[in-house]
Design brief:
With 381 residues, this protein is mainly beta. It is built from two helices and 20 strands. The longest helix has 14 residues.
Length: 381
């Protein structure tokens, strides 16, 4: 028990590990604790407490498929509601490595999200869950499969799901105190066919075709996102590049549109983020955004307390809605990582400023509205 507690405390700091092994190493099957489920926070649900378990069978026999079972339950303190879910996956390790699965959950999920990756506190580049404010209460049942062709360059994920969604009118959320917490609109039911294809781990195409069940006379809606994410390393520097674009057809429901969101107000720097923009600033049907960060990794010899790494980041976004509204912005940022080391964490600072056309919704004539002074935090491994 003592060893398990030590692992629970120190594993996040030393290994970026989402899972902590609970069974001994002599066991053929393994049970893990999911650290991401213990505690989370966003400005919609506020504090979230829960428990997640992950069970896997042995992988040392290519003839016998591997079972992977996830289950979790949690409680959100602001809406005061429980959430839960589970997923069962059967993994074949030969040939195209098919991974058929079934999944069910009832949870709060980000609505109109423009991000493909899940948020983790241990990976600051995947930051967006922290600042999410527009969320849906969703009940989803999914069946699908993932597979990777023999050459391994491409990987695919295909699934079919049935969703029931609850949300406020026009996507309003719990941040507005005058909205009655019980004032849900009627639930909407959707059937969705989803395809995700990834090339060499850096280029991702995500396409969904969905239809509202109650309105049989409406045509199918289509939503697509294309994302590129790659890092380039030089002798003493790195260049991280990120680009993303997406569109949704005009007949799509509000919950399937895109939220152009930033992380202003968090006081922390995040890669690939719009640092001076507030969460859920603009809802769009067509958008594009990009980010490029160049960092010098070694200015002075390493020491135990300081290893400054100056960087420059340029980000931008443009979005359009079918009601002829639009927005656009450019955001330069300068900063220094790892100015001070405390234990396993390095701290730094950054400053960003937003430039926008005067007729754009995100424009402000005030310096304080356009600027953001932030901390940076990275783990020293």
């Amino acid at each position: 028990m003592k060893k398990t507690l030590i692992l629970l405390i120190f594993t996040p700091l030393i290994a970026f590990s989402q899972y902590v092994r609970l069974t001994d190493f002599k066991s053929k099957s393994t049970l893990y604790l999911d650290l991401d489920r213990l505690y989370n926070y966003n400005i919609y649900e506020r504090n979230q407490f829960g428990l997640g378990l992950y069970f896997v069978t042995p992988t040392n026999n290519d003839k016998v498929p591997q079972w992977r079972i996830n289950a979790y339950a949690g409680y959100s303190t602001f809406p005061k509601e429980w959430k839960y879910g589970g997923k069962v996956t059967l993994c074949f390790h030969k040939g195209w490595q098919w991974q058929p699965f079934v999944q069910y959950f009832e949870d709060f999920v980000p609505a109109s999200s423009i991000y493909l990756n899940a948020y983790s506190l241990l990976n600051p580049s995947q930051n967006t869950g922290f600042m999410t404010s527009h969320m849906l209460r969703m009940r989803r049942a999914t069946i699908g499969t993932a597979f990777t062709p023999n050459h391994g360059i491409l990987s695919f994920h295909v699934d079919f799901s049935y969703d029931r969604e609850w949300c406020r009118y026009k996507g309003d959320h719990l941040l507005y105190p005058h909205i009655n917490p019980e004032d849900y609109r009627n639930p909407q039911d959707f059937a969705t066919l989803h395809l995700n294809a990834t090339y060499k781990g850096m280029l991702t195409l995500d396409v969904s075709s969905f239809k509202e069940i109650a309105t049989y006379d409406t045509p199918l809606s289509l939503k697509a996102i294309l994302q590129y994410n790659k890092s380039y390393k030089y002798k003493n520097s790195t260049l991280n590049t990120f680009a993303q674009m997406g569109f949704v057809t005009q007949n799509a429901s509000y919950s399937h549109r895109f939220d152009i969101s930033g992380t202003a107000g968090s006081y922390f720097f995040f890669d690939n983020s719009l640092l001076t923009l507030a969460p859920n600033s603009f809802t769009s049907d067509l958008y594009a955004r990009f980010s490029a960060k160049f960092r010098l990794n070694k200015l002075i010899p390493n020491n135990n307390y300081c290893n400054p790494k100056p960087f420059v980041q340029v980000s931008g976004a443009a979005a359009y809605a079918y009601d002829d509204t639009w927005t656009a912005m450019l955001e330069p940022c300068v900063g220094i990582d790892d100015i001070l080391r405390y234990g396993a964490i390095n701290f730094g600072a950054a400053f960003a400023y937003r430039l926008a056309p005067k007729n754009a919704p995100c424009y402000s004539p005030y310096f304080s509205d356009n600027s953001a002074l932030m901390f940076t935090a990275t783990l020293a491994l």
